[in-house]
Amino acid sequence: MTTRVAVIGATGKMGRLVCGLIERTEGYELVAQLNSQSSLDEMIGADIAFDLTRPGVSQSVVDFALDHGLHVLVGTSGWSQDRIGSLAHRLADRDDVGVIIIPNFSIGSVLATAFSALAASFYDSIEIVEAHQAGKVDSPSGTAVRTAELIGAARAGRGPVSAPHTDQRARGQQVSNVPVHSLRLEGLLARQDVFLGGTGETLTISHNTLSTDAYIQGILLALAATREARGVTVGLEQIVDLGLSPGAAA
Prior knowledge:
Blueprint: E1 3-8, H1 13-23, E2 28-34, E3 48-51, H2 55-67, E4 71-74, H3 81-91, E5 98-101, H4 107-119, E6 125-133, H5 142-154, E7 173-175, E8 178-185, E9 190-198, E10 201-209, H6 216-226, E11 231-234
Helix pairs in contact: 4-5
């Protein structure tokens, strides 16, 4: 069975990558390529709407797709917990469509985030530094937000991280009590470092994206899962069993 995909945000860097990948992958058909001038009606008739727009546009794309019975794969950053919660409430009584939200399609990035959550219960001092290309419009990145949220969840029984002087602007933005610092630099694609400090030692978990090719495997895994999705799923780790969980460390 061929899965028909409409890509919204098709002219951006990720959009071009996804369109080319769909066109050369058996079992998928690229039926629409929407840009900022396109009517959202152009996605009607697809099985999946793949949103690669901007934070201020993504919500309207998702709403339109769901109103017209499309499954949705979101690769746009900026989805807050409140927005995700509202979306989950909207889909609670529907069994015909679903939404998958992926902050980062890189398998290595997802593993680094999972490793950080595993380590979080052993260290009280934790901070995140994320760096992206100068053109990235949102900060902190969706990956950094997701990492901080999972760190916070992993520490539910231990309490908040030790983050002194957070009243000072240079100490970063608090996400689930974890300070997050954002860099936007020319010549860079994406990098994230999670710094964990304890008595007499520090641990740094780093992931560096060198090419957009790093996203290909995750994109294909997410597309395969989206066709059968129900409700709201957040994170590639919910699709791929990494064999890791905070409780596994015991």
